[in-house]
Design goal:
This protein has 477 residues and is an alpha/beta fold. It folds into two domains: 285 residues, Rossmann fold, CATH 3.40.50; 132 residues, no CATH class. The strands form five sheets. The chain has a nine-stranded mixed sheet. A six-stranded parallel sheet has the order 2-1-3-4-5-8, with helices on both faces. The chain is globular.
């Protein structure tokens, strides 16, 4: 067995964050056919709570620390938690793009536990006054620069993820990537000041869809020069990544945390990942994880105890996260533009399924980047959801799909020398393939930039004339 390196998440200040996970992996490795001793295990101690530290700084520090290991076979496997996943993925990209700077140590297996690959909805709270007060009482800074990376729709996180989507599969480099995440929050850790800590479709910190690397890049752009206000879809799926839901696990906490408690399900899943040796085995494990996730999705009702009252009902539908970036053909952000999903042959926003939109969060630094959390089951249609206490009772009746789904964009600048026009997808086109269960899609919506002739004219009239109020003239082609 190769050396195993553990990398923790944001704001950790003590190696107790790993709990009994390293020891339990070592104890159970032999049964999985892996020779793993405590001498092969290293625990990271990286600083994410200093406001000056950037993701690039952590990448350089990680690379330097690896050089000190003096690995016999110049390779290692890695288990990460939360922000640790993006840290190692950024290092992999730097190693590929900067071969003269980064070490040549090879990563064979990357097992990410609850990774914030597309960020976390909680990152904005971490930068708020409440987050700073909490950090002050803990004696550490909130880690502003790392939180900037972790904010949903950040330019840095999208850069990494779009690079991943459009690159060759890690299998081509002999690398095996895995994502494991809990399927629900720990209700005992619910923070009444922030509902995201109890958000269904997340583990209490990271959304399931935001962890999953089975992602897509979609582009809605003008159909052509003569039909510039009709948007057509171009869809690019990323490489397949092994993805598994860990039942009843949450992001952290002693009772249900995916890392600290080292639940048997988590340990066994990690060992299954570390046992993979070739592409065929990886594909087989991907298929097995998909089947196990489907079984979990079929058993989607959670009854949360509420003391003397009736239990709270949670229906764990698969979610889809849509990160929308609104720009024009010149790359200018369309700040303030309205983006609407539509349904049915009438292409009406009023025909979208009731309750399909679960959350909307704009990025604080890129206002034209918006992250939407959608109920995937309501979009595709779902069977009746029965009450597990009495199968004759219905918690939710069957839902039919309201497709075909489309989109429309309403910019704020509909007039002027430089402006944009209303745009929409073609009638009959269906955007449903853009969404995936427990998955994220990065959607670039690109509008045609209307430039009118009056913005620049030439004249042979040598008599001085005022052009402070120019005639707009036609839109130039």
């Amino acid at each position: 067995m190769t050396t195993l390196v553990f990398v923790h998440g944001w704001s950790a200040t003590n190696t107790s964050t790993y709990g009994q996970m390293p020891q339990q992996l070592q104890q159970q490795a032999a049964a999985a056919g892996l020779a793993l001793t405590l001498a092969d295990i290293w625990l990271s101690e990286y600083v994410s709570f200093d406001d000056a530290v950037t993701m690039a700084d952590l990448v350089r520090g990680f690379d330097h620390a690896l050089r000190d290991l003096h690995l016999l076979d110049a390779s290692f496997a890695c288990v990460t938690h939360s922000t640790g996943g993006p840290v190692v993925r950024e290092w992999l990209r730097a190693q590929r793009d900067q071969p003269g700077i980064c070490s040549t140590i090879r990563l064979s297996h990357l097992v990410m536990l609850a990774p914030a690959n597309f960020g976390s909805a909680l990152a904005q709270l971490g930068k708020s006054v409440f987050g700073r007060l909490k950090s002050w009482f803990s004696g550490v800074e909130p880690g502003q620069r790392i939180l900037d990376w972790l904010e949903l729709g950040s330019a840095a996180s999208l850069s990494l993820n779009l690079d991943y989507i459009h690159s060759e599969s890690p299998l081509a480099r002999g690398q095996f990537l895995f994502v494991l995440i809990g399927d629900r929050p720990d209700r005992a850790l619910y923070d009444h000041l922030n509902s995201y800590t109890g958000e269904d479709g997340s583990d209490g910190v990271v959304r399931i869809a935001a962890a999953n690397l089975n992602a897509r890049h979609a582009v809605l752009s003008p159909h052509g020069a003569t039909d510039s206000d009709t948007l057509v879809l171009n869809l690019s799926p990323g490489p397949r990544c092994a993805f598994k839901l860990i039942a009843d696990a949450s992001h952290s906490g002693d009772a249900h945390g995916i890392m600290a408690q080292a639940a048997p399900a988590t340990v066994q899943a990690i060992l299954r990942c570390l046992s993979i040796r070739d592409a065929a085995g990886y594909t087989t494990l991907c298929d097995a994880f998909d089947a196990e996730n489907a079984a979990r999705d079929a058993n989607k009702v959670e009854l949360e105890p509420a003391g003397p009252f009736a239990p709270r009902v949670h229906i764990h539908d698969p979610r889809s996260m849509l990160i929308v970036r609104l720009t024009d053909q010149a790359g200018e952000p369309l700040t303030g533009a309205g983006f609407l999903l539509t349904a049915g042959a009438q292409a009406s926003a009023n025909l979208m399924p009731a309750g399909f939109m679960l959350d909307r969060q704009a990025n604080s630094k890129q206002a034209a980047t918006i992250s939407l959390l959608l109920d995937y089951s309501l979009l595709v249609g779902d069977a009746r959801v029965a009450d597990p206490r009495n199968n004759r009772n219905t918690l939710r009746p069957a839902v039919v799909s309201h497709g075909p789904y489309g989109a429309s964009v309403q910019p704020v600048d509909l007039g002027g020398l430089v402006h944009h026009a209303l745009a929409a997808t073609r009638t009959g086109d269906d955007l449903l393939p853009m969404f995936g269960a427990h998955q994220t899609t990065v959607l670039d919506v690109v509008l045609s930039r209307k430039i009118q002739e009056g913005v620049f004219r030439l004249t042979q009239n040598l008599v001085p004339q005022d052009f402070s109020q120019p005639e707009p003239g036609p839109v130039i082609s």
